[in-house]
Amino acid sequence: MNISDWLKKNxxxxxxxxxxxxxxxxxxxxxxxxxxxxxxxPDYAPTGQLIEELAKQxxxxxxxxxxxxxxxxYAFQAAKAPACETxxxxxxxxxxxxxxxxxxIRGKAINGVLFSIRAFLYLLNPRxxxxxxxxxxxxxxxxxxxxxxxxxxxxxxxxxxYDLYPDIAVELGVISADxxxxxxxxxINRKVWRRSKGVIVLSPAMxxxxxxxxxxxxxxxxxxxxxxxxxxIMPLPKEDNWxxxxxxxxxxxxxxxSGNMGRCHDVDTILDAAIHLRDEPVRFVCIGxxxxxxxxxQEVQQLGLKNFTFLPxxxxxxxxxxxxxCDVSLVSVAEGMESLVAxxxxxxxxxxxxxxxxxxxxxxYLNQIVAEAECGASFRNGDGHGLAQFIxxxxxxxxxxxxxxxxxxxxxxxxFTPEAIAKQYYKVLRRAAA
Length: 434
Hints:
Blueprint (H helix, E strand, L loop, with lengths): L2 H7 L1 H18 L3 E5 L9 H15 L3 E6 L14 E4 L2 E5 L10 H20 L7 E5 L6 H11 L2 E6 L5 H5 L8 H16 L2 E4 L2 H10 L7 E3 L18 H5 L6 E6 L9 H9 L5 E6 L5 H11 L4 E4 L7 H4 L5 E5 L12 H7 L4 E4 L5 H9 L2 E4 L4 H13 L1 H18 L2 H16 L1
């Protein structure tokens, strides 16, 4: 009897043989991925926290993952982190440079340049030349290194765009659209995107923006949303929440803004709503930092408002408590920024089981998410009165507020879990490795 006849009479053995062979092939074709991002825990920067979760999820899907990042330099309490460490099976390597005047704009720019130099040296290591490199826009010129490494060594890279530059700088009036720097930067972007194996953006509007700038790369642009882990951020009653108790937030109706208060965010509408509610039992809590934080604090003081509490960024282990120490969560995007940024705080707010109040331009994709999730309401920039009315409504109809929070969390669990989103990343990265 030959082997073929024997396998026919023993199909379970043949099936086992095929299965084992498939596993061997899968093991041999395991994708090696390098994630390059300036920020990573113990830094509190949202991009770093997302990259940490992504690395863990890609590892669980069978990829061989290495992270190259910097020392804490955005929002941190621990000023130093190990140069090398292992998290599960993920290898983390940290640059020595990224802490020069981190709270100043020039310092941040210089830190970004220094980190990029170190990242380029990392990419030049022959050991990584068979890896797929995922380069984020933190700092914004980091993807250029992938382009250079690809030209020199044929390295495959994918761009992950959190914030779109120079468009943001133009929208904020830092430089004009026809300035030589803006035109040069935009042309470099086109070259980087064309040579990349893929471009990942966080919203449909960002994809449309890139397609308009560089139509020939539209087919390689993937929209992959951010996410939150519903097993980590879970609803918790304020009376059982030590963070709410510690900051006297159990009794007042609490409106939470947690995250960066930067130039791309709308804090004016929040301030206007707080003015309308100054004589009511409502407390606005702002956790984080950013370019607009000091200005907001000064205006609150000048107006004599007593309904604000300002707190610094919180350690990662505190977030399940700080994000649930409220009755409604705020998300905001400034006018004109709807296709340039995508707030990651939206997803952790959904996970917290609290209703959302979203401040954004009329054509923002956030409006659609709020409507589909039935998790709250959205308001156009400047509509502080409407926001105040919505807060009053929630304060007087707690069951409805609870229903909105529950619906939002259910929507997140259907659409934006780490497992679901990481599968989309892995698909793009496997394709880039082929």
